[in-house]
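Bit of a strange request maybe. I'm writing a small parser for structure token strings and I need a real example to test against, not something I typed by hand. Could someone generate the tokens for this chain?
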Amino acid sequence: MPEGDTVWRACKRLNQALAGQELIRTDFRVPSLATTDLSGRSLVEVVARGKHLLMRVSGGVTVHSHYRMDGSWHLYRPGERWRGGAEHQIRAVLETAQWVAVGYRLPVLELVATDAEDSVVGHLGPDLLSPAFDQETAVANLRSDPGRTISEALLDQRNLAGIGNFYRNEVCFLLGLHPWLPVAAVDIPAAVELSRKLMKANVRNAAQVSTGVDRPGQRSWVFERPGKPCRRCRTTIRTAMIGDPPRDRVSYWCPACQPAADPPGN
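Reply from user aminoacidic:
Good idea to test on real output. This should exercise your parser:
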């Protein structure tokens, strides 16, 4: 799933290409927006809020999208071949005289009033990549449920926005935290600081890296490495699902570097 840094990079590219440009054609391929036409308006700016992407258009309208598992926005020059996926996967096309922005596989795509953006992002906690990141509030949010696992707390976008499964697993490893450790047993300020440090370090990279080695197969300590030896101690990396049913988040951890009782049922 794309995380906050991926969305931030996409917003920066889209903003550089489209901000201040007039939309000469728009094509929304979802039933709720099938008759919507924003041509003739200017695209004011494109901003990220956690994992949400907000395209603000003149006239007080915002195009709100969310990538979820595999959505994406691609930029092409007029006449250039589109390569982001099959035709039936296209959900939106925004065209200016110089660029064509094509949204693929967007599970969330809607129009909201710009002055009512809080209706779609107001529930989010402090954005880790925002220059105005409020660490004190993020820490307080995480500590508000001390019995919750650190894994679930970090992934809850209401606590702090932007963290996904890659950063959650890597932060837990780097701090020696078992995925099922309760929030009350964790140095929460340290977890928040490391999460922000990793995301900021990767924000301009095409790949997410926590090891300092940007090569295929060497970018993570435990993420997506089940059954492989820990890079520190050679203990076999374990994996299990975490979260409330249906348990749909995968945890990876080293039993030696992240010691604790095993998760229920294991």
